[in-house]
């Protein structure tokens, strides 16, 4: 599952994987002598074209290195194995890698580490297979970790991940990476984004950074993900053709207070992981008073209205002061 939230503790399986990687590197060190070390590029959803090693595994830079020296050693190096160069080995540029940006720095643990545009390069033990970038934007082992572009730039984008979760009465529906429910807007008609202006302040669209795509998380079908142009600028993530929105009335993960609301010009529904529109309405409960009268109570939904003084739209890709008021905004975490 593609995760980007910082972890405060290192999982046991990650330590075991790192230990295994260390043993493998030790046992195979002699055979690697003078073998060329390739640095290549690969397109990773949500991040674009980034640096990878010869096996397609994502390469990272470590902010505390400051383009000066290798500072990830000891336990850090077991979680983030540096790209080591055997004595006499050469670096080879593959894909869109620029040979002039390749270099090496001394490793305090011995030997040298490959660099790109001055940044020492590392893999991440938490990436289970080529093409994963679960270490992106993690604050771990003493600092932040980011991927690098072919031009040598640090990519700090946090990919937008679409996940799914089970919500009572609604089943498994789409949510963002923070667990907030995502909705479709009937007037969009699986064609284009029509919720703009005041509507977009109440129903923040799932915005994508320029050139980026949404990533499929748990239970989500990657082939159903896409994007549509936003009349307000940029692009909005879609699922099975439906532009995706959060709802300002949902205050905590798992809520779906916007379900079946007729608001801001049309009806709003959640989407199933299969891409279907779930039209189940909030349940009603019936109770009888002591006088024999029957009272029907409909499950409540929080309606958010917008005025000229409403909190500014959180639909930009940069963090603004409005973000704390919209915890469900995927761009604000």
Structural overview:
A hairpin with a 5-residue loop joins strand 21 and strand 22. The relative contact order is 0.13. The model is unreliable at 1-9, 23-32, 285-291 and 294-325 (pLDDT under 50). The chain has helices at 12-27, 75-79, 198-202, and strands spanning 37-44, 48-53, 60-62, 84-85, 91-93, 102-106, 112-116, 119-120, 139-140, 143-148, 154-155, 161-167, 171-176, 183-185, 207-208, 215-216, 225-229, 235-239, 242-243, 262-263, 266-271, 277-278, 284-288, 294-298. With 333 residues, the chain is mostly beta strands. The strands form seven sheets. Strands 3, 9, 10 and 11 form a four-stranded antiparallel beta sheet that branches. It has two domains: 12-155, no CATH class; 161-332, no CATH class. The chain starts with 11 loop residues before the first helix and ends in a 35-residue tail after the last strand. It is built from three helices and 24 strands. The chain is 8% helix and 29% strand.
């Amino acid at each position: 599952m593609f995760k980007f939230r910082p972890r405060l503790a290192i999982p046991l399986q990650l330590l075991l994987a790192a230990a295994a990687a260390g043993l493998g590197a030790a046992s195979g060190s002699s055979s690697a002598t003078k073998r060329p070390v390739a640095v290549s590029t690969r397109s990773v959803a949500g991040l674009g074209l980034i640096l990878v090693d010869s096996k397609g595994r994502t390469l990272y830079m470590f902010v505390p290195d400051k383009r000066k020296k290798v500072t990830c050693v000891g336990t850090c190096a077991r979680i983030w194995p540096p790209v080591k160069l055997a004595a006499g080995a050469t670096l080879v540029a593959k894909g869109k890698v620029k040979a002039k940006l390749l270099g090496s720095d001394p490793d305090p643990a011995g030997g040298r580490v490959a660099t790109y545009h001055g940044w020492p390069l590392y893999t991440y033990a938490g990436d289970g297979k080529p093409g994963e970038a679960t270490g992106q934007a993690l604050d771990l082992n003493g600092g932040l970790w980011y991927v690098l572009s072919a031009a040598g730039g640090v990519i700090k984008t946090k990919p937008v991940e679409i996940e799914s979760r089970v919500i009572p009465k609604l089943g498994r529906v789409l949510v963002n990476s923070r667990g907030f429910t995502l909705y479709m807007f009937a007037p969009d008609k699986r064609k284009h984004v029509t919720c703009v202006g005041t509507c977009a302040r109440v129903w923040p669209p799932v915005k994508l950074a320029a050139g980026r795509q949404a990533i499929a998380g748990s239970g989500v079908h990657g082939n159903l993900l896409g994007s549509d142009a936003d009349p307000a600028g940029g692009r909005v993530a879609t699922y099975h053709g439906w532009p995706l929105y959060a709802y300002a009335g949902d205050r905590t993960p798992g809520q779906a207070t916007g379900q079946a609301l007729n608001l801001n010009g049309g009806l709003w529904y959640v989407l199933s992981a299969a891409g279907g529109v779930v039209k189940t309405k909030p349940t009603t409960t019936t109770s009888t008073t002591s006088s024999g009268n029957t009272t029907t109570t409909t499950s409540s939904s929080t309606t958010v209205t917008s005025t000229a003084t409403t909190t500014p739209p959180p639909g930009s890709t940069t963090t603004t002061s409005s973000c704390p008021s919209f915890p469900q905004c995927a761009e604000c975490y």
